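Record type: monomer structure entry
Structure origin: computed from sequence
Chain ID: A
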Amino acid sequence: MTSSLLGYIMAIDALDKKGARVRSVDLAGSLGVARASVCKALDRLSENGYAVRGEGGNVRLTAKGKEAVGIYSPARDLLKGALTEKLGLGEARAEKEALAALGAMSTDTVQRIARLYGGAEERDKNAVGIRTCQRASESCKDAR
């Protein structure tokens, strides 16, 4: 998947989660692109089965589009976080570069990154629990 189409899928998902109607004009505003560019991208998303346009110009992700969000979103979040926290990039630049990197990767690699993210999240939860336990009682060290 190209980074451009991936950006559109993520933008549709983000607008949808806000509870707003998702129309081409909304996507153009969200992404800072011309409406004509949005229309071309929506045609490609529709052709590839990621999104559909309904009545009134509303856009929604298909099951395939939602699946792509589920696969790419955790990997994007991990890469974006590393780019902002470790390299000091701004949010917008980190988002753009994370999507560019993911667009160049195979789905298998993206899924591996997503699993890594899930594993890191679980380790963070456990680490917080361990630190709390250590503060509360020295005997908790054995509970690890």
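Annotation 1: The beta strands are 51-53, 59-61.
Annotation 2: The first helix runs from residue 3 to 17.
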